[in-house]
Amino acid sequence: MNDLFAEISFKSINHEGEQLCGDHVDIVPEQDGSRSIVLADGLGSGVKASILSTLTSRIISTMVAEGLSLEECVSTIAQALPVCSVRGVAYSTFTIMHLVRNQTAELIQYDNPHVIMIRDGRVHEYPELEINIEGKRIYRSKIRLQEGDVFIAMSDGCPHAGIGIAYNFGWKREDIASFMADYCLAGYTAKALSALLIDECDKLYGHKPGDDATACVVRIRKRTPMNILFGPPESRDEVDRMMNLFFSKDGKHIVCGGTTASIAAKWLGKKVETDIRIDRSSKVPPTSRIEGVDLVTEGVVTMNRVLTIARDYLKGQDDYDEWAFGRDGAAQICQLLFEEGTDINFFVGRAINPAHQGADTPINFNIKMNIVEELSECLREMGKRVKVSYF
């Protein structure tokens, strides 16, 4: 395992008038830290296309998760996918990006637009080996990964954007690559890059997409640790050990909770200063400041908001602009955990706050523990390494 991390994000728009997307993306984690991303595009649009693409991606994903070789996966799906007798095209096309321990990328492509690779801010041409499986032409590539590499997989709804409106023959792959290269060089996250591409496609369609369009972006970057202190320890005797471990860790430090902030400030020999820039329209309590700490927020209410955004993020239903550019405590934690951090260390105190134990108070110890457990699982699904230590 090296010190590289694969940041993965995707975004889709549906064919005009359709509630379901005919494209589907699955991300499959593997025990050795590798991950497989499958982007499938079902024939047509609507319910039928959605079923076809979902079945295709799920079959491939399941086989990969069971440890079958990519050759077996492709052979099985190639045999299973019939060809439309009228159009002469497959009922579903697919792109597989297999990231092996963040060291190499194996690409397998069938009838989708070929993956765009950006390296050092320029379009990078990678070798492709054409193989024939069950009469279907499959393209395979193996690429050694470097920091800063960006891979952009897409359904054909992206190059079809603008046909008859902005372009006579659509938005060509090389034009898409050129459009994205500058953003990649500027260091945009995978989430931002996928949103930029799909938003541009939507504009080219005149906001009336003539096809489903999906972009899945993989961005390779260095691992970045992030540390969160949430709640005081169960025993006062544990304070020094908890604080020593927390502040000795590399990376940024986030302190959540009023009592926790007071303990951290006392240990550091500093003061807690409340942020005077209070947004009274926000449902999240204001942040504070402690010299030597990167972010200080309120506890359970703020972290519960972070968990809500994390759930929506994994479903592709989050309001990216709201949290990515927000300044409240929850938005800032999301920015640090979702976009910046790769290795998340939770330091969680088990102390029960007497102020939260009243019959009319909705906050209790179990809620706090559940937030930590569920948020940790959400972060793992995002591909983060997560460690939780209790005190």
Give me some keywords for this one.
391 residues; elongated; 27% strand; Phosphatase 2c, domain 1; six-stranded antiparallel beta sheet; alpha+beta; five-stranded antiparallel beta sheet; 33% helix; 2 domains
Q: What is shown here, in short?
A:
It contains ten helices and 18 strands. It is an alpha+beta fold and 391 residues long.
Structural summary, described in words:
The protein is α+β, with helices and mostly antiparallel strands. The protein has two domains: 4-222, Phosphatase 2c, domain 1; 225-390, no CATH class. 33% of the residues lie in helices and 27% in strands. It has ten helices and 18 strands. The protein has helices at 46-65, 70-80, 173-185, 190-204, 239-248, 258-268, 300-315, 320-324, 329-340, 365-381, and strands at residues 4-13, 23-29, 35-42, 92-100, 104-110, 116-119, 122-123, 129-133, 136-144, 150-154, 213-222, 225-230, 252-256, 273-274, 288-289, 295-297, 343-348, 385-390. The strands form four sheets. Strands 2-3-4-5-9-8 form a six-stranded antiparallel beta sheet. A five-stranded antiparallel beta sheet has the order 1-11-10-6-7. Strand 4 (92-100) and strand 5 (104-110) form a beta hairpin. Helix 7 crosses helix 9 (329-340). The longest helix has 20 residues, at 46-65. The two termini are 30 Å apart.
